[in-house]
Amino acid sequence: MTRTVEPPANPALPVNLREALEERYLAYALSTIMGRALPDARDGLKPVHRRILYGMSVLKLDPGTAFKKCAKIVGDVMGSFHPHGDQAIYEALVRLAQDFASRYPMVEGQGNFGNIDGDAAAAYRYTEARMTDVARLLLEGIDEDAVDFRDNYSGDQKEPIVLPSALPNLLANGAQGIAVGMATSIPPHNLAELCDAALYLIGHRGATAEQLMQFVPGPDFPTGGIIVDGPDAIRDIYATGRGGLRLRARWKKEDGGRGTWLAVVTEIPYGVQKSRLIEKMAELFNDRKLPLVADIRDESAEDVRIVIEPRARTIDPDMLMETLFKLTELETRIGVNMNVLVDGVAPRVVTLNEALGQWLDHRREVLLRRSRHRLSEIERRLELLDGMIIVYLNLDEVIRIIREEDEPKDVLMRTFALSEMQANYILDTRLRSLRKLEEMALKTEHDELTKEKAAVEQLIGDDRLQWKTIAWEIRDLKKKYPPESKIGKRRTTFGVAPALADIDLSEALIEREPITVVVSQKGWIRALKGQVGDVSNLQFKGDDALLASFFAETTSKLLVLASNGKVYTLEACKLPGGRGHGEPIRLMADIDEGAEIVAVMPYRAGAKMLAVTSDGRGFVAGQDDMTGATRKGKAVMNVEAPARAAALVPADGDHVAIIGENRKLLVFALDQVPEMARGKGVRLQRYKDGGVADAKVFALKDGLSWVDSAGRTFNVAKGDLKDWIGNRAEAGRLPPKGFPKNNRFG
């Protein structure tokens, strides 16, 4: 017996795998973009938030009503509107209730809704919730045909496509989301400032983001903090819809008595979990990466209070905090990507003025729809009132028809030319309503509704009146959340952060004390305590003698010029004391064999120096370009043997005086010398034999001065220097009488 195999009812069809995957992934991507991740530009809500608020509205959880279990809310939202996981819905609801996550919370919670430490909320069977006034504003007019509705996922109920949104929620509360191939990150803003900007935009529809910044200077985060980016950076973000902001914690210095102090952090950046922040700081402290910190304590209760104790009371507080800003989440970068669904359909990055414009256009559409809805209600009520007035004018006949006729409705409609709705209303009216008093009330109501109808019709037909009404609503909104109120007050301020490159931790740990640095001709160095003016009694080794001495501080840096043209950087705090002869500089820096110490001087930020080589070449260089962080030094002068570095003198003045070993003096303007970071320089003075003996920069109006071997100071006035003033690269002439025989200015 042969068995017949019947083909399947729906045979498989061959498809191209690539095309099938592209089609299905595109459908998934669109679903993620439209249905989950990106907010609508009109109400600033993602579908899950919109459904939570509408679900709470259906449950009549208005402000001031009794709380309901979050399990009930989550269950209703999941069962009727949002076919996703209950935990996803509950987490979104919790975030709407957290005042450290939402600038203007939409849910008022009762129970454990988590905290800024990062602790999770209690399970939804333990917590309760209801809407806040802000949520009620978002839903205002939802029952007045203000927005379109669509079928829910099961088709048995309707849900709103967008909420009426009486406040600019997209910018007020911000939004975060990651879709497929795109993301959004919109920081929260101050509602009162947004209202002012919206009012300006109503009157100036072509206003730019830069113009709106006079009302909205920047974001306003629920946790406060300080924005340390300037107005130009914020302007670029608002003008393009993309960028980033640096947000810092707010801190203050608390005096502890006897010179001690503490740094207390009172506000942390938005989105940072306090417990994770403390753990990271403790980890860095244990790893010895916070050398300025002695202790970190979390003394927070309801308010944030993180106490940081310095290692020494001489540490600069700003320096201490800068190290923490650099290494921890006390400073974070808030990314901005204002990617939203424009008109609820197309994902696009919008600017500040476009975002506000989208909300204003939506408010106008809501106003028109509510006005038309109200107009239809008025017309319906007027129709009923017209029917009732006819009843009062013909009361006996109406009663007779109702008592005697078999089909009173049809007879009433024929007799008095009534509509079916009017006839039904008359038949449903109770006898006790047919009083004289009721007739007067009906006529009064009819007159009032007629006036209201005319006003609504005028509103619908007049664009200027529509915008005037919207402006009135916005002003009323600002009155509810004024800048001086607790919730309306700006929490985030603006500041300027110092450059991190300027921080020197080693300097911060050193107690600042005055010292006198003494350098010998053979390169031995020491530091005497205090400022010692007379060093003539100091002892030196063998035939060694004094090369230089100057005042400094333990926090100072010293610059050492060697004859090979390199400059080495020393730290004054590491110099040996003044009781002995000191130590050779060669032990502190890797100075080349054969090179000699030419000059030692204190480092001054921004100072200019005249660098001179023995063959008469030179240039002006900044001390900032000479400092280095290694023992190997920094090449400043390019010298070729037999030439050597001869001098490095302060460029404080407008003229250069240079004298050669041939005892020829030349004076010329400093602006003839180029400024360079390093190099050979230009010819300063010309010689037949020998080279440079000494050089000096001075102010011509004060004259040229020098000190002789006896310690006496001589000065040649400006008018008497005319014989020596020339141009660079000239030979010069013999110096004035009384100039030291050693050819040095002292």
Structure description:
It is a single chain. The radius of gyration is 42 Å and the shape is elongated. Helix 3 (70-80) packs across helix 4 (86-97) and helix 12 crosses helix 15. The protein is an alpha+beta fold and 746 residues long. The protein has four domains: 45-163, Topoisomerase II, domain 5 (Alpha-Beta Complex); 165-242 and 338-500, Topoisomerase, domain 3; 250-329, Gyrase A, domain 2, CATH 3.30.1360; 502-721, Neuraminidase, CATH 2.120.10.90. The protein has a four-stranded mixed sheet. Helices cover 32% and strands 22% of the residues. The relative contact order is 0.06.
Number of domains: 4
State mean pLDDT (0 to 100 scale). Answer: 90
CATH class of the largest domain: Mainly Alpha
Going across the biggest sheet, name each strand in turn.
Answer: 14-9-8-17
Report Rg. 42 Å
Briefly note the structural class of the backbone: alpha+beta
Relative strand content: 15-25%
CATH homologous superfamily of the largest domain? Answer: Topoisomerase, domain 3
Kindly state the percentage of residues in helix.
25-40%
Give me the count of strands.
Answer: 34
Largest sheet: 4 strands, mixed
Q: How far do the termini sit from each other?
A: 129 Å
Report the uncertain regions: none
CATH architecture of the largest domain: Orthogonal Bundle
Shape: elongated
Helix segment tally: 18
State the CATH topology of the largest domain. Topoisomerase, domain 3
